[in-house]
Amino acid sequence: MISSNSRSFxxxxxxxxxxxxxxxLPFSNWIALAGASTVRERPEASTARGQQMLAVYRKAVGLxxxxxxxxxxxxxxxxxxxxxxxxxxxxxxxxxxxxxxxENAQLVAERRKLALGPDGNGSGGIWATCPHHxxxxxFLPWHRLYLAYFEQIIEKVxxxxxxxxxxxxxxxxxxxxxxxxxxxxxxxxxxxxxxKDRSSRxxxxxxxxxxxxxxxxxxxxxxxxxxxxxxxxxxxxxxxALEEDLHDxxxxxxGTKIGNKVxxxxxxxxxxxxxxxxxxxxxxxxxxxxxRKPGPDGKSPRxxxxxxxxxxxxxxxxDGAAAAQRDKGAAFVLVAAAxxxxxxxxxxxxxxxxxxxxxxxxxxxxxxxxxxxTTGQKITNEGDSVSxxxxxxxxxxxxxxxxxxxxxxxxxxxxxRTAPEPGVYQVYMDVPGTAGGPVTQALVGSFSLFRVGAxxxxxxxxxxxxxxxxxxxxxxxxxxxxxxxxxxKVTVRxxxxxxxxxxxxxxxxxxxx
Length: 513
Known about the structure:
Layout: H1 11-21, H2 27-36, E1 40-42, H3 48-64, H4 78-85, H5 105-116, H6 139-158, E2 185-186, E3 189-190, H7 200-205, H8 209-217, H9 238-254, E4 256-258, E5 261-263, H10 276-292, E6 314-318, E7 324-329, H11 330-334, H12 336-340, E8 342-344, E9 367-379, E10 385-392, H13 396-403, E11 410-418, E12 424-431, E13 440-447, H14 450-454, E14 465-472, H15 474-478, E15 488-495, E16 503-512
Parallel strand pairs: 1-8
Antiparallel strand pairs: 2-3, 4-5, 6-7, 9-10, 9-16, 10-15, 11-14, 11-16, 12-13, 12-15
Helix pairs in contact: 1-5, 3-6, 6-10, 9-10
């Protein structure tokens, strides 16, 4: 599933807008200040230092939301920063870039060009440039630089040293959203880290134990054992697995739905307006850095080959001096501590792995081993489930040919009719009991529909489309949890839903290569 959501950026737009956009501190002074600063150490949110950093963050978010301090057209305003990630295409922006009494109309016009491009339609602008689910896999480096510049901005706005905390939700003891994000007020004062458009079920319950087990244990989500950053086979590398599994599912779990509109973290269009977005992406970035296992020079043998065109990408952001920056890209952001002046207080455990050369999935078209259909059953509410009986689709000799080949890979494909919807959808398969014992269900994976909105230029405004969820079940076949020679059953169940969703489950199949 590929997105064309990222918009091109024109160099002249930035060069023309840099001087006009700089409204606080001369860029040369800020560079000197940044160069003299020590490396920021990003703490886990629940630690004492993490709580201190959250207090700085809360102060800065309040100021960035204060239109008297930062009008929305200012590059350091909360809305401007969030819209760099994305924004609803049907949201009127003319009021944002209309100069108020006493404002410099030329400055506001230059900021409009910076955000929306010279023609004002978004082409060549800095807004809505986040790449999600793209074939060139820019997801991790783009967000790394986005966070690094945002960290500068928070420090500048708050007037205090700042390192962005991360939320380690893979720790079963930290599966709830950090306390400072959960209440609308703190000490009788507005809590700027609270955001109303969140799933009430997620805020109250946190990640379920099943979700944590799924994210830590299933083949695609057991990220630290994935050998390549990306390969020439989609869904085969670390970047894609991290994005489509853990990243998307946290987005889907926290966001919600109001009427027919998906809001908050569950849609790419609004996700960065929730302050928890930044802690989520710090956690994602930490997992990437943990997987990289960088050496003293900040480099890692797990990084992509420098000859790949991936390295030539350039990204466009706003720095701590409110100046436009576009000269840093994928190669620069790999060496995080040396170039971006940050590190993490500790890294997630990662095994020593050998980096594979080339694709790690057999070539050639897949063979359908099992298949089944439903009569268009729907998932609508929390806890709803749809089951699909599976029957063998090939003769026993063909199935045994794959079973006897240790290089075989098995994927479960679930075919849906859906629009972008909040929530996490857990997938189970029946496991026959031994010696005639009862059938049990094994959790084989989970998914979110956050990516569906990422594929579409109009996101949540689009109606339902046909989507296919792919879950690698090779390990479950090898463990004899799934037997491709016998009939089976797939069950999809919904979690974290505050409002009805409209998802039709049409079919499922297991394919082998």
